[in-house]
């Protein structure tokens, strides 16, 4: 390795490590802010929160790597240009592409690390994070009651609160369905104008104190009576207290087996196997449908036609069944059976189409995760070819202008990635086209910027745009003078 290679690698590694950890910290804080309501007030131990943050951190590493590569490459080449080191390198007859060669190799190494992380570590960390978050949500379920949403986390009850103040525990417009009776139907309904929610006995009891409401209770009728009466008891109250035992809602880690069909916890090999299996099921769907409807393709009822006698000729334009000499009862039986057969075939057809749609949607979701492992890795290389020439053109180091430019291009990449994923998820484009769309758009931009940087084109200097504006003004003035 030559000295010039060591120089550029040393100049790159420092900013890369700093920007990587900064980007990782920002992403983790963003995710923590998103789930802060699910964590606060549940009495979780610090070890549980630290474990969850660790899993979140590992899941965000593949996303932080492209950001770090983009920002550090702009900072590196911007700093070298600001200190005129790029000028000295070019004066020595070394091209910019040769100067970038060691960092291009490092960008591919980082892409390989991102791919390996996405394929081996990310499924494990996703599974651990989702299991731990689901386990946290089962603890103290009262904090999961959201405004205007029916909540069924407490066994035997369904609760809906129109307005809720998390700080004071006050609520308005409360509706509670009680399913705890012998029957599972909603035999008891509580409606209250307002109320208050709080815990007692060190969080073992959740108490709802309701004000100004009504209780509706259905009384099960005596079905032995000739005309059973369905009665309802309605009770008015000014204050009503309802308590729930939360002792069984302590922190318990749920079974990881629940997530075995989640595509985010699968490696590349498992996704490929699952895709092949689902595609085979879709290809075999017509055969399965034919086997289902085959018994309904024959409508002949030998007993009826034998009893009616053979040799009757059909009357053209008349009733075929009447032509066979069948009486009204037999005609009704045959017609009813035909209608039932048609309904059954239609049901099988509807079920087959629904099953096929669901399988195709599952194929799309699995394909999105399959391609995501490649696109995030190669984004490190594509964003490097944008960041490095941008730094050489801007010739500004530090965290000022490079940070602004890097954020702009990262937002563009992220928006294009999300648009492509959404289009693929809605089956507007194929998963390949949707997931690779951002790279297909940004790669030509990187090639263009690299070409401009190698030829010292001043595309980001104020003098260039001043000259363009002067030419536009000149032609406008000339046109006005002619008129």
Give structural notes:
With 483 residues, this protein is α+β, with helices and mostly antiparallel strands. The protein has 3 domains: 3-138 and 369-470, no CATH class; 141-249, no CATH class; 266-367. The chain is 61% helix and 12% strand. The protein has 13 helices and 5 strands. It has helices spanning 3-34, 36-39, 46-82, 85-91, 96-137, 268-283, 285-293, 302-308, 320-323, 328-394, 401-425, 431-454, 462-482; strands at 157-164, 170-178, 188-200, 205-219, 231-245. The chain has a 5-stranded antiparallel β-sheet, with no helix packed on it. It is extended, with a radius of gyration of 35 Å. Mean pLDDT is 78; it is low at 304-318.
Helix and strand arrangement:
Layout: H1 3-34, H2 36-39, H3 46-82, H4 85-91, H5 96-137, E1 157-164, E2 170-178, E3 188-200, E4 205-219, E5 231-245, H6 268-283, H7 285-293, H8 302-308, H9 320-323, H10 328-394, H11 401-425, H12 431-454, H13 462-482
Antiparallel strand pairs: 1-2, 2-3, 3-4, 4-5
Helix pairs in contact: 1-3, 1-5, 3-5, 3-10, 3-11, 5-10, 6-10, 7-10, 10-11, 10-12, 11-12
Keywords:
single chain, 483 residues, alpha+beta, 3 domains, 13 helices, extended
Summarize the structure.
With 483 residues, the chain is α+β, with helices and mostly antiparallel strands. 61% of the residues lie in helices and 12% in strands. The protein has helices at 3-34, 36-39, 46-82, 85-91, 96-137, 268-283, 285-293, 302-308, 320-323, 328-394, 401-425, 431-454, 462-482; strands at residues 157-164, 170-178, 188-200, 205-219, 231-245.
């Amino acid at each position: 390795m030559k000295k010039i290679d060591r120089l550029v690698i040393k100049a790159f590694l420092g900013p890369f490590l700093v920007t990587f950890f900064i980007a990782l910290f920002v992403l983790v804080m963003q995710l923590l802010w998103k789930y802060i309501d699910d964590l606060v007030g549940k009495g979780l131990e610090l070890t549980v929160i630290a474990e969850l943050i660790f899993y979140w951190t590992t899941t965000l590493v593949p996303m932080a790597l492209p950001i770090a590569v983009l920002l550090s490459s702009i900072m590196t080449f911007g700093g070298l240009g600001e200190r005129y080191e790029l000028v000295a390198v070019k004066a020595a007859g070394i091209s910019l592409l040769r100067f970038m060669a060691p960092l291009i190799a490092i960008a591919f190494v980082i892409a390989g690390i991102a791919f390996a992380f996405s394929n081996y570590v990310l499924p494990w960390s996703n599974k651990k994070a989702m299991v731990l978050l689901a386990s946290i949500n089962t603890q103290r379920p009262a904090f999961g009651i959201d405004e205007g949403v029916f909540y069924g986390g407490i066994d035997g009850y369904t609760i809906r609160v129109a307005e809720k103040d998390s700080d004071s525990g006050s609520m308005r417009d409360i509706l509670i369905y009680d399913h705890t009776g012998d029957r599972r139907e909603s035999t008891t309904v509580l409606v209250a104008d307002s109320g208050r929610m709080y815990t007692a006995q060190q969080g073992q009891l959740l108490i709802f104190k309701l004000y100004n409401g009504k209780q509706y209770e259905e009384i099960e009728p005596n079905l032995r009576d000739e005309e059973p009466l369905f009665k309802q008891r309605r009770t008015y109250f000014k204050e009503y207290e309802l308590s729930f035992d939360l002792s069984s809602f302590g922190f318990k880690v749920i079974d990881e087996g629940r997530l075995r069909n989640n595509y985010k916890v699968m490696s590349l090999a498992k996704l490929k196997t699952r895709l092949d299996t689902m595609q085979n099921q879709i290809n075999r769907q017509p055969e399965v449908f034919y086997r289902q409807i085959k018994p309904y393709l024959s409508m002949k009822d030998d007993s009826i036609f034998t009893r009616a006698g053979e040799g009757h000729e059909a009357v053209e334009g008349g009733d075929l069944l009447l032509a066979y000499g069948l009486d009204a009862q037999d005609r009704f039986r045959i017609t009813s059976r035909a209608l039932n057969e048609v309904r059954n075939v239609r049901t099988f057809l509807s079920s087959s189409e629904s099953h096929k749609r669901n399988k195709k949607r599952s194929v799309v979701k699995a394909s999105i995760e399959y391609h995501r492992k490649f696109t995030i890795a190669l984004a490190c290389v594509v964003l490097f070819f944008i960041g490095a020439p941008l730094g050489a053109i801007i010739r500004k180091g530090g965290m000022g202008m490079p940070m602004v430019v890097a954020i702009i291009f990262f937002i563009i990449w992220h928006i294009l990635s999300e648009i492509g994923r959404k289009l693929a998820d809605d089956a507007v484009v194929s998963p390949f086209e949707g997931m690779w769309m951002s790279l297909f758009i940004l790669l030509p931009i990187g090639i263009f910027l690299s070409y401009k940087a190698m030829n010292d084109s001043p595309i980001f200097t104020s003098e260039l745009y001043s000259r363009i504006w002067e030419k536009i003004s000149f032609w406008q003035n000339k046109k006005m003078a002619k008129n």
